[in-house]
Design goal:
Structural class: mainly beta
Strand content: over 45%
Distance between the termini: 14 Å
Shape: elongated
Largest sheet: 6 strands, mixed
């Protein structure tokens, strides 16, 4: 335990330069307002028999086969490069929250005008509500500090997926209950994830109100272990934002009224 990262709270007027170059959800779904491009994936599972797939410029790449059953209800999608996509969805053939990979698998031999044939080639079963739970997805993207592997963070935990074989590398389940996660930040320097929790602690003996513990935990995404933890003020359930500095040695945690900066060693 001696090698855990320690936190030192800094004065409120300490200069802080937040990292600003990272989208936590690198969305690619066609009906997502922050989408990179019109990829063609839809949220309501209403995929046609041969569903069009587009590139970022809107040019049609080909058509997806089996979208209804193999992709199903689509919540988020990211572009992996090389005409490949990772999708957080609930396929109708399994009814399980999953991450699936869609990529070209050939062509339409008798209808070359349809372009390349896309299909789901791998699927990872995550568990109930990892994808479909209310406001469940917090991070879904590739990270260069993880060898360009895929990071997915939900209310239940996080999983690192190998970019090449689409197999899980590390999977961590949070032990604080559904809905306790209130904020997520990613270090610009190392594969470190900062997660802020607000968890039920006890019931006040005098007025019967629920009391909460607020704290931030650092996780090593490559190894899956906790790297450090520090308490935050307040005994109410609180929504927080957490941001790493550009140098990766500080974090700032805020809830709209309170702004706290911590130095880490």
């Amino acid at each position: 335990m001696d090698d855990l990262i320690s936190f030192t709270q800094l004065p409120n007027d300490t200069p802080f330069t937040p990292r600003s170059d990272l989208l936590l959800i690198d969305a690619a779904r066609v009906d997502n307002p922050t989408a990179q491009g019109l990829w063609g994936f839809v949220s309501n599972a209403r995929y046609s028999n041969k569903h069009p797939v587009y590139d970022i410029s809107g040019q049609k790449l080909g058509h997806l086969k089996g979208g209804v059953m193999d992709v199903g209800y689509t919540f988020e999608a990211i572009y992996l490069g090389h005409k490949e996509f990772a999708i957080a969805s609930v396929p109708l053939n399994s009814r399980s929250d999953s991450l699936v990979r869609v990529r070209p698998v050939g062509s339409y031999l008798f209808r070359p005008s349809l372009g390349q044939r896309f299909a789901v080639t791998e699927s990872l079963n995550l568990g109930r509500d990892w994808v479909s739970g209310n406001n469940s997805i917090h991070v879904f993207r590739q990270l260069d500090k993880l060898n360009n592997n895929i990071l997915f963070v939900s209310n239940y935990g996080f999983i690192v997926v190998d970019r090449h074989d689409f197999e899980p590398i590390k999977r961590v389940t949070f032990d604080h209950g559904y809905g306790a996660l209130k904020g997520v930040g990613i270090s610009p320097k190392r594969p470190i994830l900062a997660v802020v929790f607000s968890t039920y602690s006890k019931t006040d003996k005098l007025d019967n109100t629920y009391l909460y513990k607020n704290f931030v935990t650092l996780y090593d995404m490559a190894e899956g272990n906790k790297m450090g933890e520090t308490a935050l003020p307040g005994d109410k359930e609180t929504s927080w934002n957490v941001t790493f500095s550009e140098c990766g040695r500080q974090i700032r945690v805020s809830n709209g009224q309170t702004h706290l900066t911590f130095d880490m060693k």
